[in-house]
Amino acid sequence: MNIHEYQAKELLKKHGVAVPMGIAAMSVDEAVEAARSIETDLYIVKAQIHAGGRGAGYFTDNPDGKGGVRLCRTLDDVRAAAEAMMGKVLVTKQTGPEGKQVQRLYITDGVDIEKEYYCSVVLDRATSRITFMVSTEGGMDIEEVAEKSPEKITKVSVDPVTGVSGFHCRKLAFELGFKGAQVKSAVKFFTGLYNAFVSLDATILEINPMVLVGDEVMALDAKMNFDPNALYRQKDVFAMRDESEEDKNEKIASDNELSYVRLDGDIGCMVNGAGLAMATMDIIKLHGGEPANFLDVGGGATAERVATAFKIILSDPNVKGILVNIFGGIMKCDIIAQGIIVAAKEVSISVPLVVRLEGTNVEKGKALLEGSGLPIISADNLGEAAQKVVEATKKAQEAA
Question: Any idea what the Cα angle at residue 245 is, between residues 208 and 294, rounded to 5°?
Fold first, then answer.
Protein backbone atom coordinates (compact mmCIF):
# COMPACT_ATOMS: atom_id res chain seq x y z
CA MET A 1 0.00 0.00 0.00
CA ASN A 2 1.22 3.50 -0.85
CA ILE A 3 0.56 6.77 0.97
CA HIS A 4 1.12 10.42 0.09
CA GLU A 5 4.23 12.39 0.94
CA TYR A 6 2.53 14.48 3.61
CA GLN A 7 1.21 11.32 5.29
CA ALA A 8 4.65 9.71 5.26
CA LYS A 9 6.13 12.82 6.87
CA GLU A 10 3.47 12.76 9.58
CA LEU A 11 4.47 9.20 10.45
CA LEU A 12 8.19 9.95 10.33
CA LYS A 13 7.82 13.01 12.54
CA LYS A 14 6.22 10.83 15.22
CA HIS A 15 9.41 8.74 15.19
CA GLY A 16 11.73 11.72 15.67
CA VAL A 17 12.65 12.32 12.02
CA ALA A 18 13.06 16.01 11.22
CA VAL A 19 10.86 17.35 8.40
CA PRO A 20 10.08 20.90 7.19
CA MET A 21 6.84 22.38 8.46
CA GLY A 22 4.00 21.50 6.11
CA ILE A 23 0.20 21.40 5.89
CA ALA A 24 -1.97 19.34 3.53
CA ALA A 25 -4.75 21.05 1.58
CA MET A 26 -7.78 19.63 -0.21
CA SER A 27 -8.73 22.84 -2.04
CA VAL A 28 -7.21 26.05 -3.36
CA ASP A 29 -8.57 28.06 -0.44
CA GLU A 30 -7.17 25.54 2.04
CA ALA A 31 -3.78 25.83 0.33
CA VAL A 32 -3.75 29.60 0.80
CA GLU A 33 -4.83 29.27 4.43
CA ALA A 34 -2.12 26.69 5.01
CA ALA A 35 0.50 29.03 3.57
CA ARG A 36 -0.79 31.89 5.71
CA SER A 37 -0.25 29.83 8.86
CA ILE A 38 3.36 29.00 7.91
CA GLU A 39 5.71 31.83 8.83
CA THR A 40 8.21 31.90 5.97
CA ASP A 41 9.23 33.99 2.99
CA LEU A 42 9.41 30.98 0.65
CA TYR A 43 6.59 28.45 0.20
CA ILE A 44 6.71 25.15 -1.66
CA VAL A 45 3.45 23.96 -3.23
CA LYS A 46 3.61 20.23 -3.98
CA ALA A 47 1.07 18.11 -5.85
CA GLN A 48 0.20 14.91 -3.97
CA ILE A 49 -0.15 11.82 -6.15
CA HIS A 50 1.17 8.28 -5.78
CA ALA A 51 4.06 8.75 -8.19
CA GLY A 52 7.57 10.14 -8.19
CA GLY A 53 9.11 12.72 -10.48
CA ARG A 54 6.40 15.29 -9.74
CA GLY A 55 8.69 18.29 -10.04
CA ALA A 56 9.91 17.21 -13.47
CA GLY A 57 6.39 16.30 -14.66
CA TYR A 58 3.87 18.37 -16.58
CA PHE A 59 0.15 19.02 -16.56
CA THR A 60 -1.85 17.85 -19.57
CA ASP A 61 -3.59 21.20 -19.97
CA ASN A 62 -0.21 22.96 -20.02
CA PRO A 63 2.46 20.51 -21.26
CA ASP A 64 5.13 23.21 -21.64
CA GLY A 65 4.57 24.75 -18.21
CA LYS A 66 5.81 24.04 -14.72
CA GLY A 67 5.57 20.71 -12.93
CA GLY A 68 3.98 19.56 -9.71
CA VAL A 69 6.45 21.22 -7.31
CA ARG A 70 6.58 25.04 -7.32
CA LEU A 71 8.36 27.73 -5.31
CA CYS A 72 6.22 30.69 -4.25
CA ARG A 73 7.12 34.00 -2.62
CA THR A 74 3.65 35.37 -1.78
CA LEU A 75 0.18 34.13 -0.92
CA ASP A 76 -0.97 35.23 -4.37
CA ASP A 77 1.73 33.01 -5.87
CA VAL A 78 0.50 30.13 -3.71
CA ARG A 79 -3.07 30.63 -4.93
CA ALA A 80 -1.94 30.73 -8.56
CA ALA A 81 0.12 27.56 -8.12
CA ALA A 82 -2.73 25.77 -6.34
CA GLU A 83 -5.21 26.74 -9.07
CA ALA A 84 -2.79 25.45 -11.71
CA MET A 85 -2.54 22.07 -9.95
CA MET A 86 -5.77 21.23 -8.12
CA GLY A 87 -8.03 18.99 -10.18
CA LYS A 88 -5.56 18.88 -13.08
CA VAL A 89 -3.87 15.79 -14.53
CA LEU A 90 -0.15 15.53 -13.76
CA VAL A 91 2.03 13.33 -15.96
CA THR A 92 5.37 12.04 -14.64
CA LYS A 93 7.72 9.28 -15.73
CA GLN A 94 6.04 6.99 -13.18
CA THR A 95 2.38 7.69 -14.02
CA GLY A 96 2.49 6.78 -17.70
CA PRO A 97 1.05 9.08 -20.38
CA GLU A 98 -2.42 8.96 -18.81
CA GLY A 99 -1.16 10.79 -15.71
CA LYS A 100 -3.00 11.19 -12.41
CA GLN A 101 -5.47 13.81 -11.26
CA VAL A 102 -4.23 16.00 -8.41
CA GLN A 103 -6.76 16.08 -5.58
CA ARG A 104 -4.48 17.03 -2.70
CA LEU A 105 -1.72 19.59 -2.21
CA TYR A 106 1.02 19.96 0.37
CA ILE A 107 2.24 23.42 1.37
CA THR A 108 5.65 23.42 3.07
CA ASP A 109 8.26 25.79 4.35
CA GLY A 110 10.99 26.46 1.78
CA VAL A 111 13.99 25.67 3.98
CA ASP A 112 17.51 26.94 3.24
CA ILE A 113 19.20 23.84 1.81
CA GLU A 114 22.99 23.50 2.01
CA LYS A 115 23.29 20.11 0.30
CA GLU A 116 21.07 17.26 -0.92
CA TYR A 117 21.58 13.54 -0.26
CA TYR A 118 19.79 10.26 -0.94
CA CYS A 119 18.67 7.80 1.74
CA SER A 120 16.46 4.72 1.73
CA VAL A 121 15.67 1.79 4.00
CA VAL A 122 14.79 -1.47 2.28
CA LEU A 123 14.49 -5.19 2.92
CA ASP A 124 17.51 -7.02 1.48
CA ARG A 125 16.32 -10.55 0.77
CA ALA A 126 19.86 -11.69 -0.05
CA THR A 127 21.03 -11.03 3.52
CA SER A 128 17.64 -11.21 5.31
CA ARG A 129 18.48 -7.85 6.83
CA ILE A 130 17.17 -4.31 6.79
CA THR A 131 19.56 -2.23 4.72
CA PHE A 132 20.28 1.50 4.55
CA MET A 133 21.35 2.89 1.20
CA VAL A 134 22.79 6.41 1.16
CA SER A 135 24.46 8.57 -1.45
CA THR A 136 25.81 12.09 -1.79
CA GLU A 137 23.89 12.28 -5.09
CA GLY A 138 20.57 13.46 -3.68
CA GLY A 139 17.65 14.55 -5.84
CA MET A 140 18.59 12.10 -8.60
CA ASP A 141 17.20 8.72 -9.59
CA ILE A 142 19.07 6.16 -7.52
CA GLU A 143 18.92 3.77 -10.51
CA GLU A 144 20.87 6.28 -12.57
CA VAL A 145 23.42 6.74 -9.80
CA ALA A 146 23.79 2.97 -9.43
CA GLU A 147 24.41 2.61 -13.16
CA LYS A 148 26.80 5.51 -13.68
CA SER A 149 28.45 5.98 -10.28
CA PRO A 150 27.94 2.84 -8.12
CA GLU A 151 30.87 3.83 -5.91
CA LYS A 152 28.77 6.77 -4.65
CA ILE A 153 26.26 4.45 -2.98
CA THR A 154 26.95 3.15 0.51
CA LYS A 155 25.03 0.23 2.01
CA VAL A 156 24.83 -0.63 5.71
CA SER A 157 22.92 -3.73 6.82
CA VAL A 158 21.24 -4.03 10.21
CA ASP A 159 20.53 -7.35 11.88
CA PRO A 160 16.83 -7.23 12.87
CA VAL A 161 17.60 -9.24 16.00
CA THR A 162 19.91 -6.61 17.51
CA GLY A 163 18.39 -3.60 15.73
CA VAL A 164 20.01 -0.34 14.74
CA SER A 165 22.89 0.99 16.82
CA GLY A 166 24.90 4.17 17.00
CA PHE A 167 27.78 2.71 15.02
CA HIS A 168 25.48 1.95 12.08
CA CYS A 169 24.27 5.55 12.00
CA ARG A 170 27.72 7.07 12.50
CA LYS A 171 29.12 5.02 9.64
CA LEU A 172 26.37 6.35 7.37
CA ALA A 173 27.01 9.91 8.57
CA PHE A 174 30.76 9.70 8.02
CA GLU A 175 30.29 8.20 4.55
CA LEU A 176 28.18 11.24 3.62
CA GLY A 177 30.81 13.62 4.95
CA PHE A 178 28.92 14.91 8.00
CA LYS A 179 30.94 16.47 10.81
CA GLY A 180 30.42 17.66 14.37
CA ALA A 181 26.81 18.51 15.21
CA GLN A 182 25.74 17.20 11.82
CA VAL A 183 26.71 13.66 12.89
CA LYS A 184 24.58 13.88 16.03
CA SER A 185 21.60 15.04 13.95
CA ALA A 186 22.21 12.28 11.39
CA VAL A 187 22.30 9.59 14.09
CA LYS A 188 18.90 10.73 15.37
CA PHE A 189 17.59 10.89 11.80
CA PHE A 190 18.73 7.39 10.77
CA THR A 191 17.56 5.88 14.07
CA GLY A 192 14.13 7.41 13.55
CA LEU A 193 13.94 6.05 10.00
CA TYR A 194 14.81 2.53 11.16
CA ASN A 195 12.30 2.58 14.02
CA ALA A 196 9.56 3.87 11.71
CA PHE A 197 10.38 1.23 9.10
CA VAL A 198 10.17 -1.64 11.59
CA SER A 199 7.25 -0.51 13.75
CA LEU A 200 5.06 0.41 10.74
CA ASP A 201 5.78 -2.79 8.76
CA ALA A 202 7.15 -0.81 5.83
CA THR A 203 8.70 -2.45 2.78
CA ILE A 204 10.30 0.70 1.35
CA LEU A 205 11.18 4.01 2.98
CA GLU A 206 12.85 6.45 0.62
CA ILE A 207 14.03 9.98 1.38
CA ASN A 208 15.04 11.76 -1.81
CA PRO A 209 16.32 14.25 -1.17
CA MET A 210 17.52 14.13 2.39
CA VAL A 211 18.91 17.61 3.05
CA LEU A 212 21.26 19.46 5.33
CA VAL A 213 19.77 22.65 6.77
CA GLY A 214 22.46 24.28 8.90
CA ASP A 215 23.60 21.37 11.06
CA GLU A 216 20.25 19.57 10.96
CA VAL A 217 19.51 16.59 8.72
CA MET A 218 15.94 16.69 7.37
CA ALA A 219 13.63 14.75 5.05
CA LEU A 220 12.64 17.10 2.23
CA ASP A 221 10.62 14.37 0.52
CA ALA A 222 9.41 10.97 1.70
CA LYS A 223 8.01 7.84 0.11
CA MET A 224 6.71 4.84 2.06
CA ASN A 225 5.25 1.50 0.98
CA PHE A 226 3.79 -1.01 3.41
CA ASP A 227 3.41 -4.77 3.60
CA PRO A 228 -0.27 -5.43 2.76
CA ASN A 229 -0.21 -8.62 4.84
CA ALA A 230 0.56 -6.57 7.96
CA LEU A 231 -2.07 -3.86 7.52
CA TYR A 232 -4.46 -5.65 9.87
CA ARG A 233 -2.22 -4.49 12.73
CA GLN A 234 -1.49 -1.06 11.23
CA LYS A 235 -4.93 0.52 11.48
CA ASP A 236 -3.58 4.10 11.52
CA VAL A 237 -1.62 3.43 8.34
CA PHE A 238 -4.54 1.69 6.64
CA ALA A 239 -6.72 4.70 7.43
CA MET A 240 -4.38 6.73 5.18
CA ARG A 241 -5.33 4.69 2.12
CA ASP A 242 -6.39 6.95 -0.77
CA GLU A 243 -8.66 4.80 -2.93
CA SER A 244 -8.93 7.51 -5.59
CA GLU A 245 -5.26 6.85 -6.41
CA GLU A 246 -5.84 3.15 -7.00
CA ASP A 247 -6.75 1.44 -10.25
CA LYS A 248 -10.47 0.59 -10.10
CA ASN A 249 -9.98 -3.06 -10.99
CA GLU A 250 -7.02 -3.44 -8.64
CA LYS A 251 -9.22 -2.15 -5.82
CA ILE A 252 -12.03 -4.59 -6.68
CA ALA A 253 -9.48 -7.39 -6.78
CA SER A 254 -8.02 -6.39 -3.42
CA ASP A 255 -11.48 -6.26 -1.84
CA ASN A 256 -12.09 -9.81 -3.08
CA GLU A 257 -8.69 -11.14 -1.95
CA LEU A 258 -7.37 -11.40 -5.50
CA SER A 259 -3.93 -10.32 -6.70
CA TYR A 260 -4.32 -8.20 -9.83
CA VAL A 261 -1.97 -5.89 -11.70
CA ARG A 262 -2.94 -4.35 -15.04
CA LEU A 263 -0.31 -4.49 -17.80
CA ASP A 264 -0.13 -3.09 -21.32
CA GLY A 265 -0.75 -6.23 -23.39
CA ASP A 266 -3.87 -7.76 -24.93
CA ILE A 267 -4.02 -11.32 -23.53
CA GLY A 268 -5.76 -11.58 -20.17
CA CYS A 269 -4.36 -14.14 -17.72
CA MET A 270 -6.02 -15.94 -14.82
CA VAL A 271 -3.98 -18.42 -12.82
CA ASN A 272 -3.63 -19.75 -9.29
CA GLY A 273 -0.25 -19.02 -7.79
CA ALA A 274 2.17 -16.12 -8.28
CA GLY A 275 4.91 -18.35 -9.69
CA LEU A 276 2.53 -19.88 -12.20
CA ALA A 277 1.35 -16.39 -13.12
CA MET A 278 4.90 -15.29 -13.91
CA ALA A 279 5.56 -18.44 -15.92
CA THR A 280 2.30 -17.97 -17.83
CA MET A 281 3.16 -14.38 -18.74
CA ASP A 282 6.67 -15.39 -19.80
CA ILE A 283 5.48 -18.17 -22.09
CA ILE A 284 2.87 -15.90 -23.66
CA LYS A 285 5.68 -13.51 -24.56
CA LEU A 286 7.78 -16.44 -25.78
CA HIS A 287 5.08 -17.23 -28.33
CA GLY A 288 4.86 -13.61 -29.49
CA GLY A 289 1.99 -12.34 -27.32
CA GLU A 290 1.75 -9.66 -24.63
CA PRO A 291 0.03 -10.30 -21.27
CA ALA A 292 -2.63 -7.75 -20.31
CA ASN A 293 -2.50 -8.46 -16.59
CA PHE A 294 -1.22 -10.47 -13.66
CA LEU A 295 -4.17 -12.10 -11.90
CA ASP A 296 -3.73 -14.72 -9.19
CA VAL A 297 -6.95 -16.16 -7.70
CA GLY A 298 -4.96 -17.90 -4.96
CA GLY A 299 -5.32 -21.34 -3.49
CA GLY A 300 -8.57 -20.87 -1.58
CA ALA A 301 -10.75 -19.10 -4.12
CA THR A 302 -14.49 -19.73 -4.37
CA ALA A 303 -16.53 -19.92 -7.57
CA GLU A 304 -17.81 -16.40 -6.83
CA ARG A 305 -14.29 -15.04 -6.45
CA VAL A 306 -13.22 -16.68 -9.70
CA ALA A 307 -16.24 -15.13 -11.41
CA THR A 308 -15.18 -11.72 -10.10
CA ALA A 309 -11.66 -12.31 -11.41
CA PHE A 310 -13.04 -13.18 -14.83
CA LYS A 311 -15.16 -10.03 -14.90
CA ILE A 312 -12.13 -7.92 -13.98
CA ILE A 313 -10.19 -9.33 -16.91
CA LEU A 314 -13.07 -8.78 -19.33
CA SER A 315 -13.61 -5.21 -18.15
CA ASP A 316 -10.27 -4.21 -19.71
CA PRO A 317 -11.04 -3.04 -23.29
CA ASN A 318 -7.48 -3.91 -24.32
CA VAL A 319 -8.06 -7.62 -23.68
CA LYS A 320 -8.48 -9.45 -27.00
CA GLY A 321 -7.94 -12.97 -25.72
CA ILE A 322 -7.94 -14.84 -22.39
CA LEU A 323 -5.79 -17.66 -21.05
CA VAL A 324 -6.93 -19.51 -17.92
CA ASN A 325 -4.11 -21.67 -16.57
CA ILE A 326 -4.98 -23.63 -13.43
CA PHE A 327 -2.96 -26.23 -11.60
CA GLY A 328 -5.44 -27.72 -9.15
CA GLY A 329 -4.11 -28.48 -5.70
CA ILE A 330 -5.95 -26.74 -2.90
CA MET A 331 -7.76 -24.83 -5.67
CA LYS A 332 -9.89 -27.49 -7.39
CA CYS A 333 -10.35 -27.39 -11.16
CA ASP A 334 -14.12 -27.81 -10.97
CA ILE A 335 -14.40 -24.70 -8.76
CA ILE A 336 -12.50 -22.71 -11.39
CA ALA A 337 -14.79 -24.07 -14.08
CA GLN A 338 -17.89 -23.09 -12.09
CA GLY A 339 -16.56 -19.57 -11.67
CA ILE A 340 -15.87 -19.20 -15.39
CA ILE A 341 -19.39 -20.38 -16.21
CA VAL A 342 -20.98 -18.01 -13.68
CA ALA A 343 -19.01 -15.06 -15.08
CA ALA A 344 -19.80 -15.99 -18.67
CA LYS A 345 -23.52 -15.89 -17.92
CA GLU A 346 -23.21 -12.32 -16.66
CA VAL A 347 -20.60 -10.97 -19.10
CA SER A 348 -20.74 -11.72 -22.79
CA ILE A 349 -17.49 -13.32 -23.97
CA SER A 350 -16.54 -11.91 -27.35
CA VAL A 351 -12.82 -12.82 -27.30
CA PRO A 352 -11.03 -16.18 -27.67
CA LEU A 353 -10.87 -18.14 -24.41
CA VAL A 354 -8.21 -20.81 -23.90
CA VAL A 355 -8.37 -22.94 -20.76
CA ARG A 356 -5.73 -25.32 -19.47
CA LEU A 357 -6.71 -27.30 -16.37
CA GLU A 358 -4.58 -29.84 -14.54
CA GLY A 359 -4.64 -31.38 -11.09
CA THR A 360 -7.40 -31.99 -8.52
CA ASN A 361 -10.82 -32.70 -10.08
CA VAL A 362 -9.51 -31.89 -13.56
CA GLU A 363 -11.94 -34.25 -15.28
CA LYS A 364 -14.90 -32.70 -13.43
CA GLY A 365 -13.70 -29.26 -14.44
CA LYS A 366 -13.31 -30.17 -18.09
CA ALA A 367 -16.71 -31.83 -18.13
CA LEU A 368 -18.36 -28.72 -16.70
CA LEU A 369 -16.75 -26.48 -19.32
CA GLU A 370 -17.55 -28.85 -22.20
CA GLY A 371 -21.20 -28.99 -21.15
CA SER A 372 -21.49 -25.23 -20.65
CA GLY A 373 -21.88 -24.34 -24.30
CA LEU A 374 -19.13 -21.74 -24.00
CA PRO A 375 -16.75 -21.21 -26.96
CA ILE A 376 -13.74 -22.59 -25.09
CA ILE A 377 -10.44 -23.70 -26.66
CA SER A 378 -8.92 -26.41 -24.48
CA ALA A 379 -5.23 -27.18 -24.06
CA ASP A 380 -3.37 -30.00 -22.33
CA ASN A 381 -0.18 -28.16 -21.36
CA LEU A 382 1.05 -24.62 -20.82
CA GLY A 383 3.07 -24.36 -24.02
CA GLU A 384 0.13 -25.48 -26.12
CA ALA A 385 -2.21 -23.13 -24.26
CA ALA A 386 0.04 -20.11 -24.84
CA GLN A 387 0.47 -20.92 -28.51
CA LYS A 388 -3.28 -21.34 -28.99
CA VAL A 389 -4.25 -18.11 -27.21
CA VAL A 390 -1.68 -16.06 -29.14
CA GLU A 391 -2.80 -17.50 -32.48
CA ALA A 392 -6.51 -17.16 -31.69
CA THR A 393 -6.06 -13.57 -30.49
CA LYS A 394 -4.19 -12.57 -33.65
CA LYS A 395 -6.85 -14.18 -35.88
CA ALA A 396 -9.65 -12.44 -33.97
CA GLN A 397 -7.95 -9.06 -34.36
CA GLU A 398 -7.30 -9.63 -38.07
CA ALA A 399 -10.94 -10.59 -38.58
CA ALA A 400 -12.08 -7.48 -36.75
Answer: 95
